[in-house]
């Protein structure tokens, strides 16, 4: 019997189309599904011993893996879901094995699109693998930073402020965030005073309604003052961040643009009309006046976008010839395009796509033509949100407030932390990144220290609280080695003009409670006065008053009589942490001999006893990831003389910048 094709197709569509599985051809052994297989196999292990064996075998297979075929497209990052159910040590093993693969091929295959969606994240190490690991060191907490552009520029400014950076921001309406309007505003800023005053007066008197009791003189004065303050902020900035949002604007017709009073790109001066007032009636009037002046609301063309960016760049360089400029494309979608002039009826989503595409291409054009300016940079905030984001699990936009125009906080945080990592001077990279840059192999970190570290920490916590039979708790680890090193620390503090210090592993920090300090013939009211610093932060993971991990960075980090008490396998991440807290210098002293004290478990308190040459190699590998930080490590050995007396020999491992 012959079946009517139309009926057969209709039956198929009703029964199967909504349930069609489009990826039934996907092979189960492809490289990109390796994390899913790993996660399922680890979860199916009947006990801890079986899972450890499976993980060891998985790590071995990674070590033996040849980077060919689809394996070349992998970035080798463990997804969050694959970490679930694993212990810290197990995660450390897998991460270390993956890190070895990354080290061999990430930069070489930067141009290969990340193939496995499970690897996508805003972790710094993934973004480095996707966008390049070059770092520029353009600013620190003492730099004057200024941001201009959309709400995305405001978000950058707010994040940097919370991190302790000195940031100013040009507060303006989102409507202004086109390179045309920003170039127009800055061109007027940079114009000679008489021309600027005439321009502002002309447009204020034209735009604002005469029958609403507007004080024109006050508005003109306020706008001129605002432009002067903006010019001052731009001129004094040591680092400029400019975010570009879209290419929608009020473009002047050729006849209107040639009528006089024109400065900068041929768009109407929105910055004089909608930068402050949110009143709908007033905004409606101002929009009408912009059109009455001979403008039409439309998308800019590619040549117009390039010309606008050139004008924006020229205006900034006119005001500030020397500061680094960072350009970025805002990932925030347009709000609306009501009243836009276009040959075809387009929805806001298509218009946003067109706008971002035009602007991204124009930015790339400008960056290429101005590559001789070594202080002009681009940051891929748009690319991270709009390209990396869709492969991530959580909502990229609107997670907190259901707004399709608000980038979710976890994504914003990842973007801005990567920005600080990429362009901050002395910004602390994550520890895994440090280990990769310094070629130090370690499977442990602050988040996943070794089991021995945890056990020793418990021993020291017990001693701090209970003491021993011959030492009272209040005298245990009181910080007695610090006074001997105080003069050296003082010299480093003076050399680097340090004002803030972190004592890492301070013990009970008794020296900081002393009423006065005598050095030579001078007496000082405190150790702070002796060192000439304003603030000292104390941290010790074993002593309850100081166990909270410090936040931010410090001019100097000191660490006395600590490192030899740390397990050798944890020293790479501990040393990296010391350096990551330091803006200017790290100081530490290290004993290369057994301690007199025995821990409650019977071990010697000095659990890492190595010769100076070993310490030198270890320190230099870590320090290579922090080229801006000076350091001085005083290493002490002991030996018996011919007469049986103990001889102490000090050597210094240091990197001091000579001035």
Helices and strands, with pairings:
Blueprint: H1 5-16, H2 34-44, H3 48-64, H4 80-83, H5 88-105, H6 124-131, E1 144-148, H7 151-162, E2 166-169, H8 179-190, H9 193-207, H10 216-236, E3 239-244, E4 248-252, H11 254-257, H12 280-292, E5 295-299, H13 302-319, E6 325-329, H14 348-369, E7 376-379, H15 381-388, H16 409-423, H17 431-438, H18 451-466, H19 482-496, E8 500-504, E9 517-519, E10 522-524, H20 527-531, E11 535-539, E12 554-560, H21 571-581, E13 582-591, H22 612-623, E14 630-640, E15 646-655
Parallel strand pairs: 1-2, 1-3, 3-6, 6-7, 8-11, 8-12, 12-13, 13-14
Antiparallel strand pairs: 4-5, 9-10, 14-15
Task: Give a verbal description of the structure.
The protein is an alpha/beta fold. It has 22 helices and 15 strands. The protein has helices at residues 5-16, 34-44, 48-64, 80-83, 88-105, 124-131, 151-162, 179-190, 193-207, 216-236, 254-257, 280-292, 302-319, 348-369, 381-388, 409-423, 431-438, 451-466, 482-496, 527-531, 571-581, 612-623; strands at 144-148, 166-169, 239-244, 248-252, 295-299, 325-329, 376-379, 500-504, 517-519, 522-524, 535-539, 554-560, 582-591, 630-640, 646-655. It has a six-stranded mixed beta sheet. The chain has a five-stranded parallel beta sheet with strand order 2-1-3-6-7, with helices on both faces. Strands 4-5 form a two-stranded antiparallel sheet. Helix 2 (34-44) runs antiparallel to helix 3 (48-64), helix 8 runs parallel beside helix 13 (302-319) and helix 9 (193-207) packs across helix 10 (216-236). The radius of gyration is 31 Å and the shape is globular. Mean pLDDT is 84; it is low at 5-9 and 427-439.
């Amino acid at each position: 019997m012959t079946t009517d094709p139309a009926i057969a197709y209709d039956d198929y569509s009703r029964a199967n189309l909504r349930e069609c599985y489009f990826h039934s051809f996907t092979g189960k052994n492809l490289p990109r599904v390796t994390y899913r297989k790993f996660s399922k196999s680890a979860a199916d292990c009947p006990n801890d011993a079986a899972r450890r064996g499976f993980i060891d075998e998985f790590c071995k297979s990674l070590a033996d893996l040849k980077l060919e075929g689809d394996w070349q497209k992998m970035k080798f990052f463990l997804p969050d879901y694959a970490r679930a159910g694993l212990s810290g040590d197990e995660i450390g093993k897998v991460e270390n094995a993956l890190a070895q693969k990354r080290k061999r091929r990430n930069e070489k295959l930067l141009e290969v699109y990340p193939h496995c969606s499970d690897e996508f994240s805003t972790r710094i190490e993934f973004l480095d693998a996707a966008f390049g690991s070059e770092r520029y060191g353009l600013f620190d907490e003492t730099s004057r930073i200024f941001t201009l552009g959309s709400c995305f520029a405001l978000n950058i400014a707010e994040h940097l402020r919370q991190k302790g950076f000195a940031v100013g921001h040009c507060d303006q309406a989102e409507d202004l965030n086109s390179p045309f309007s920003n170039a127009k505003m800055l061109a007027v800023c940079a114009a000679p005073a008489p021309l600027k005053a005439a321009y502002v007066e002309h447009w204020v008197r034209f735009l604002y309604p005469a029958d609403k009791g507007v004080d024109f003189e006050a508005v003109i004065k306020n706008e001129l003052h605002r432009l002067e303050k903006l010019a001052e902020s731009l001129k004094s900035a040591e680092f400029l961040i400019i975010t570009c949002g879209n290419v929608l604007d009020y473009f002047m017709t050729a006849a209107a643009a040639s009528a006089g009073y024109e400065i900068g790109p041929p768009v109407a001066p929105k910055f004089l009309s909608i930068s402050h007032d949110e009143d709908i009636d007033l905004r409606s009037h101002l929009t009408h006046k912009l059109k009455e002046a001979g403008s039409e609301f439309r998308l800019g063309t590619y040549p117009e976008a390039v010309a606008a960016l050139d004008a924006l760049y020229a205006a900034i360089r006119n005001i500030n010839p020397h500061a680094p400029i960072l350009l970025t494309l805002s990932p925030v979608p347009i709000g609306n395009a009501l009243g836009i002039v276009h040959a075809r009826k387009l929805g806001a989503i298509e218009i946003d796509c067109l706008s971002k595409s035009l602007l991204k291409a124009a930015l790339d054009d400008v960056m290429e033509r101005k590559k001789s300016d070594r202080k002009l940079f681009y940051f891929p905030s748009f690319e991270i949100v709009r390209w990396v984001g869709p492969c991530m699990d959580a909502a990229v936009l609107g997670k907190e407030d259901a707004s399709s125009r608000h980038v979710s906080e976890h994504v914003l945080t990842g973007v801005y932390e990567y920005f600080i990592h990429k362009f901050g001077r002395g910004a602390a990279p994550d520890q895994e990144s440090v280990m990769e840059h310094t070629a130090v192999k370690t499977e442990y970190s602050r988040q996943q220290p070794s089991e021995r570290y945890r056990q020793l920490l418990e021993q020291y916590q017990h001693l701090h609280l209970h003491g021993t039979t011959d030492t009272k708790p209040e005298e245990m680890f009181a910080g007695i080695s610090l006074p001997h090193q105080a003069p050296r620390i003082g010299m480093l503090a003076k050399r680097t003009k340090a004002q803030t210090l972190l004592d890492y592993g301070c013990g009970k920090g008794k020296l900081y409670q002393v009423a006065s300090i005598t050095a030579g013939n001078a007496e000082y009211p405190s150790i702070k006065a002796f060192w000439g610093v304003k603030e000292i932060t104390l941290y010790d993971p074993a002593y309850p008053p100081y166990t909270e991990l410090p936040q931010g960075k410090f001019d100097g980090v000191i660490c006395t009589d600590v490192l030899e008490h740390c397990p050798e396998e944890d020293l790479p991440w501990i040393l990296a942490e010391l350096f990551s807290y330091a803006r200017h210098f790290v100081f530490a002293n290290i004993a290369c001999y057994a301690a007199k004290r025995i821990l409650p478990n019977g071990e010697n308190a000095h659990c890492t006893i190595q010769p100076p040459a070993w310490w030198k190699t270890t320190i230099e590998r870590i320090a290579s990831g922090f080229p801006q930080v000076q350091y001085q490590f005083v290493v002490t050995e002991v030996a018996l003389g011919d007469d049986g007396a103990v001889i102490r020999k000090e050597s210094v491992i240091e990197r001091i910048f000579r001035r």
